[in-house]
Design goal:
It is built from 17 helices and 19 strands. The protein is α/β, with parallel strands linked by helices.
């Protein structure tokens, strides 16, 4: 048999073998039928290129890796949170039970929370906590800039390191700079271990660049925690009046829920570096401080897939009077949109506060193409005035609050690693509801949508096709 004949047989095997293998793998592993059909079609039309693309972007290796780590964080001597579990009754009982089963984390009693608006109020409190640290500091931020604000944090972390405090910093591989991470170099000068989440320069690792750690976590001595939507950068200091100022909301936590916050960081750190953060230095025995029941909820394209979205959907389903959202980006998927519209149709007041203009114009285009359905169902969409507000807040019936890092868009709900906090307290819910109501600007109407030109509507609809990647 000639060389040409052998080459022809080999190419024929590749031509049919690759699509068959991709088809089998996609049928067994893809939950989304549209994505499954799309990948199969691409691989049959372009066997070599399609298979290469599927190997790079179609296989969720993160989920596989998470499964291998599921049993690594085990407590010696039993669960220290067992005595602090809270059983919720009444209207919120079904929601609390569902989230307990979904997250496998208990609802914990004995917590206190302080709401901090903007970097002007939050940064001084965070730096005060870092300066008082005596054992450990765990800091995670999607964006950690090497500007004046970032340097203030770096100086505080460096001083803590010199005092003998164990410091661990985790930044996102994209958000804090893919090719040049200034804050990592800055922290390295003080001997601080700073790792980049899902970061690699190697081509076979490039599929992970679409998966981002969007969580914002600070835990000091395992006793005081901070979480919410606030990144670390000068744009978050409104008093500086930067070109694109960003308002935001962050939360200071005390009590047993800080234990769950620390666990979330420890998981991400082990996932990224392989180092296990264990022992009382990082995870001391929890001590009750207040009287508010709380629970941490995490989500990501791993073992926590869609858990934050499921929590929101259940809360909307159980709502009796009022659901409020404040979000910088409002492009929910079909499932979320349907649930929100059904709630409005059954008489629940739905208020969604979004910025008139965000820091990403293309996301505003996609949002505007998606708003008519909510107006048709009776939802109220409010366009907030500048400055751009990056807060992610949800309040149901002024009884239950859900806050954190999660935006109402496909990327945040499906692809990003996110962290939220549920709070069962009427005072906190009332304060957040009042904050959102205060920021309601102009109410969007059908006329506002209809008067947009055809070209603008076509542009917006075209951009919406790229929702998962915005």
């Amino acid at each position: 048999m000639t060389y040409t004949a052998l080459l022809g047989i080999f190419l024929t095997i590749l031509r049919w073998g690759f699509p068959v293998l991709v088809t089998v793998h996609a049928l067994l592993n893809k939950r989304n039928t549209a994505a499954c059909a799309g990948w199969i079609g691409v691989c049959w039309v372009m066997p070599l290129l399609g298979t290469a693309l599927y190997l790079m972007f179609g296989i969720n290796r993160v989920h596989r890796r998470a499964k291998k780590m599921m049993n690594r964080h085990v407590w010696e001597g039993g669960d220290p949170l067992a005595q602090l579990r809270h059983v919720m009754d009444g209207n919120l009982g079904p929601l609390a039970r569902m989230l307990g089963r979904l997250t496998e984390r208990p609802l914990l009693q004995g917590n206190a929370v302080t709401c901090l608006h903007d970097g002007d109020n939050a940064y001084p409190v965070m730096l005060e906590a870092i300066n008082a640290a005596s054992h450990s500091i765990m800091l995670c931020s999607y964006i950690f800039r090497a500007d004046q604000v970032g340097n203030d944090f770096a100086d505080a972390l460096g001083a803590a390191k010199k005092r003998g405090v164990e410091v661990r910093v985790l930044v996102d591989g994209i958000g804090s700079g893919y090719f040049f991470c200034g804050i990592k170099r800055r922290l390295a000068r003080d001997g601080i271990h700073c790792a980049q989440f899902m970061h690699s320069i190697w081509p076979w690792r490039m599929p992970f660049i679409n998966l981002r750690n969007h969580r914002k976590i600070l835990v000091v001595d395992g006793r005081v925690g901070f979480m919410g939507g606030l990144n670390i950068g000068e744009e978050n200091l409104l008093r500086l009046r930067t070109k694109l100022p960003v308002a935001d909301t962050h939360f200071r936590l005390e009590g047993p829920v800080v234990h769950q916050l620390a666990e979330a960081f420890a998981w991400d750190w082990a996932f990224t570096t392989g180092e296990e953060l264990e022992g009382h230095r990082y995870l001391p025995s929890p001590v009750p401080v207040g009287d508010i029941p709380m629970r941490i909820v995490t989500s990501g394209p791993d073992a926590d897939l869609e858990k934050i979205e499921f929590g929101m959907l259940q809360a909307i389903t159980l709502a009796k009077r009022h659901v409020r959202f404040m979000t910088p980006y409002f492009i929910p998927d079909d499932r979320f949109s349907t649930e929100l519209n059904l709630a409005a149709l059954r008489g629940v007041t739905i208020d969604v506060v979004v910025p008139r203009s965000s820091n990403h114009p293309q996301i505003d285009y996609a949002r505007d193409a998606n708003l008519r359905q909510f107006l048709d169902a009776g939802c109220r969409i409010w366009m907030a005035k500048p400055p751009f507000n990056h807060s992610k807040l949800m309040v149901v019936d002024e009884e239950w609050s859900f806050v954190g890092s999660t935006n109402l868009d496909v990327r945040s709900l499906r692809l990003n690693f996110e962290i939220n906090l549920e709070i069962y307290d009427t005072k906190v819910a009332g304060d957040l509801a009042a904050f959102m109501d205060k920021h309601r600007g102009t109410r969007l109407t059908h006329h506002d949508i209809d008067r947009k030109s055809l070209l603008v509507q076509l542009r917006n609809s075209a951009v919406r096709l790229f929702l998962p990647y915005l």
